[in-house]
Write a structure and sequence with these properties.
The chain has three domains: 370 residues, no CATH class; 127 residues, no CATH class; 165 residues, Jelly Rolls (Sandwich). Helices cover 49% and strands 16% of the residues. The strands form four sheets. It has a seven-stranded mixed beta sheet, sandwiched between helices. Strands 8, 12, 13, 15, 18, 19 and 21 form a seven-stranded antiparallel beta sheet that branches. Helix 4 crosses helix 21, helix 11 packs parallel to helix 13 and helix 16 crosses helix 19.
């Protein structure tokens, strides 16, 4: 009996939906067990999220990840982000993604699952429409699960999952080319070329699979058409990062010429012992693939003993040959720099290969229960390798719960106003900032998002190296002196694989340079994960006694107010809602108004530190000498001593604005200061002064006062 399962045609669609729905259910279940992305998996999830954000706002020049090169997956992520924001966005898309990265990652991952499941349903529909046999459709769909990574990596947001879908589409095209006469060789060549060109730019480890259509097509004209389509599609997909082509070429050259991962290791193309060991490992870890490879060799031998007597059988023979060649190339290609998921493209070919073997065996062996036997064998090939994956679910859940203990402790016991010093690394951690710090490392022009990060994560610092200043989330330099004298605690995370010792050594060295004393305490130990939280306290008595910020938005009559509405800022002002840096207002200074409203900071003592900052619109000439941020001991325009001033910005922070920062110490009897004061200062005035030569726009004026307690206090 040709068809094992006889169904009413009206119920056929429901059966074809079965395996795609199971895939969706399994993915949701595994994601639930794995917990938040930042807790267990940030590489490359956060890289693609933040570069996908660049795509979603059509700023391809900000894409900083081009190693795979991965551009199609970044474009896809950008579409997912836009779709999610359109349905459930809050505020601007950039701010929303930065504020809720886990929300956008979860929905992007779910959208990818829906896309893969839809591709699996479409594959079943194509097979059923061609063969009119529901059994064939189910066998073809089930063959997709012979790639064990379909289930194992279902909770990850990886380009490799998208790659599996792209190769599945190639498998469907191969099926139609073998068994559907309506698909001509030329059309197959073009469609296969487009799919493979897209796949090649998604991740270059699909390269061995590109050989399948080359061997499957018979005419050289069709092969050239396939290659032209492939190259053309690859070029189009690479265009968003075309300006990084030289860097991409250098990365590929390093990989080809070195024995280690990502261009590391010794300078040799292949390390033989490592290659052989990795090839054995591939066969050991992929039972279904090994079995299909053996059956493919057997089937090819049978076809040589008894030559095919039908055109379709000839095509099947060429497909088996192309599969064996692809496997040979793929084994060397992947075993050189081994990661199990690098083999996903070749493993996804199991879908079409199993179906071809199923059809060929059905023609040769016609005993009564043959198809039942084949289906049972297929079930074993799927279930046996996936038993460890299923058993591992319990461990995944326990690991996630253990890691969550650290995250919960931080949420409940670490004050958000204190500093958390993060080591940028691919390792996940108990903070969303771990993922953001790693992901933003692969974004160019990252400073343009500084405002949004400053609002959401104002006290997240990143360690940049022994002799480098700390940074705010890898964007702009922090001031070590201000951090240490702010009186705020600094927290760090230690775990296996991290280098917390480097952070500790750095902090103590920075404290010594400032004449400060730090105390290191262990405030939490997670005995299951090996994670520890350390707190660094300044024991010299410093604290932040006063701070305020004015975004030039809050007003009360003819006076400006600080952002909290509690303090009035003295001075005339003119506000514009155009070309602002942050929010709805920016201050305008020109020849008619050369001085900004000022902060009158009272209650200061000699020895106090004051930190000022203001954001200034960029000047095309890059000459900022016409204006300066000033702190003085009297109103502007009156006889005064300028305690400190600065003109030059320390960094660009958006496309149109720079940040100017001034840090100074209030002079005292024993302070080393070029300013000579006749009496101690108790009130100082902070403002921005221009020469009035042209219009200057300012935004986000802030100050902080750091005071050190002494015995008299």
């Amino acid at each position: 009996m040709r068809n094992l399962i006889q169904l009413n045609p009206s119920r056929t669609k429901g059966v074809i939906f079965l395996l795609p729905l199971l895939l969706i259910a399994w993915t949701l279940f595994l994601n639930h067990l794995s917990g938040p992305f930042y807790l267990t998996r940030i590489d490359p999830e956060y890289i693609y999220l933040l570069n996908g954000l660049n795509v979603s706002v059509l700023r391809f020049d900000r894409i900083g990840h081009f190693c795979h090169p991965g551009t199609p997956f970044q474009l896809l992520t950008g579409i997912f982000i836009q779709l999610t924001w359109w349905i459930a966005g809050q505020g601007t898309i950039v701010k929303d993604v930065i504020t809720r990265p886990e929300f956008y990652l979860s929905w992007s991952s779910f959208c990818l699952t829906l896309l893969i499941s839809s591709g699996l349903w479409w594959a079943g529909k194509v097979v059923y429409r061609t063969t009119k046999r529901i059994t064939d459709a189910l066998v073809f769909q089930a063959g997709f699960f012979l790639n064990i990574f379909v289930l194992e990596y279902a909770s990850r947001y990886l380009p490799d999952r998208f790659l599996a879908l792209e190769v599945l589409i190639l498998c469907v095209l191969c099926f139609r080319y073998l068994y559907d006469d309506t698909l001509s060789s030329k059309r197959f060549a073009v469609l296969a070329g487009l799919v493979m060109g897209l796949s090649l730019v998604t991740k270059f480890n699909v390269l061995p699979v590109l050989l399948i259509p080359v061997f499957l097509l018979r005419k050289w004209k069709d092969r050239l058409l396939y290659l032209a389509s492939c190259i053309g599609m690859a070029f189009i997909c690479f265009l968003p990062v075309i300006n990084h082509f030289r860097d991409f070429r250098g990365f590929m050259t390093d990989i080809a010429g070195h024995s280690g991962l990502y261009g590391t290791g010794s300078e040799q193309v292949i390390e033989i012992n490592s290659l052989i060991n990795n090839i054995f490992l591939i066969f050991k870890e992929n039972f279904a693939f090994s079995a299909l490879l053996a059956f493919s060799l057997t089937g090819l031998i049978f076809s040589m003993v008894k030559p095919p007597d039908h055109q379709n059988r000839m095509k099947e023979k060429r497909l088996l040959i192309s599969f064996l060649v692809c496997v040979a190339v793929g084994l060397v290609f992947v075993a050189k720099h081994y990661r199990d998921y690098y083999f996903i493209p070749v493993l996804t070919l199991n879908t079409i290969i199993f179906y071809v073997l199923y059809q060929a065996a059905g023609e040769r062996f016609r005993f009564r229960y043959f198809r039942i036997t084949i289906l049972l064998f297929l079930g074993l090939l799927i279930i046996l390798p996936d038993i460890p994956v299923l058993l591992n679910c319990r461990l995944i859940g326990k690991d996630s719960q253990a890691r969550m203990q650290t995250a919960v402790f931080i949420e409940k016991n670490v004050n958000v106003k204190d500093f958390f010093l993060v080591e940028p690394t691919w390792m996940s951690g108990p903070l969303i900032a771990n993922g953001l710090a790693y992901g933003i490392s692969y974004v160019t022009h990252k400073h343009v998002y500084y405002n949004d990060y400053q609002l959401c994560y104002p006290n997240i610092l990143t360690w940049e190296g022994e002799d480098q200043p700390l940074k705010y989330l890898r964007m702009i330099n922090a001031d070590n002196e201000s951090i240490l004298r702010s009186g705020k605690d600094v927290y760090t995370l230690a775990s296996p694989g991290r280098n917390e010792d480097n952070l500790s050594r750095y902090l103590f060295k920075a404290a010594a340079a400032c004449g400060e004393i730090l105390k290191k305490d262990t405030i939490f130990i997670n005995s299951i994960t090996g994670e520890s939280i350390y707190r660094y306290r300044n024991m010299s008595g410093w604290s932040t006694v006063r701070e305020a910020s004015c975004g030039f938005e809050a007003q009360q009559g003819r006076y400006l107010l600080t952002d909290d509405g509690k303090t009035r800022i003295e001075g005339e002002f003119r506000i514009t809602n155009k070309n602002t840096c942050n929010g709805n207002g920016a201050l305008v200074l020109d020849k008619g108004l050369v001085t900004s409203p000022m902060f009158m900071i009272s209650g200061v003592s000699p020895g106090d530190f004051i930190e000022l900052s203001i954001k200034r619109k960029k000047e095309p000439s890059k000459d900022y000498s016409d204006g300066e941020l000033i702190i003085a001991d009297a109103f502007p325009g009156k006889p005064c001593n300028i305690l400190a001033s600065i003109s030059l910005p320390i960094s660009n922070i958006t496309e149109n604005y720079t940040l100017i920062r001034l840090i100074t110490r209030i002079p005292g009897p024993q302070s080393a200061s070029p300013v000579t004061l006749t009496s101690p200062v108790s009130t100082v005035y902070a403002y921005f002064l221009t020469k009035g030569t042209h219009t200057v726009l300012l935004d986000d004026f802030t100050y902080k006062v750091y005071h050190q307690r002494n015995k008299e206090d």
